[in-house]
Amino acid sequence: MALRETTGKRKLFRRAAAVAAATATAAVMAVGTAEAAPARPMDGPWAGCPWGAVCVYPQDQNPAVSPSLVFESYGAHNLNNQYGNHWVLNNQYGGAYARACTGYNGGGSCTDIAPENGLYLNLTPINSIVLVRP
Hints:
With 134 residues, this protein is of the alpha+beta class. Helix content is 22%, strand content 27%. InterPro entries: TAT_signal.
């Protein structure tokens, strides 16, 4: 009886471990890999993105090399015809952050991008990038 109980616990543990591994893998796939992000120099251009700007790179350009969109003024910037995965690099400084929003003009739900950071995002549901001054 004790052997059967131990075997049952092992099966339960294996199933729980498999579910945890699948969940962790799905979470990494949803966010993208940080390893592919270009190296971040301090106080200067980053992967072709000017210091103080927020840049969007062409679909599936990984790592980010040359931006297709460059935003340098605060406020909302509406996107058109941007689908699939793109790097969005926030090369702003001094606490300025960027937001990737599902609605036009910064509406809907938004994902914040901290200063001097980037995210590999699916832009299909994203309709605006907002540059927010500190």
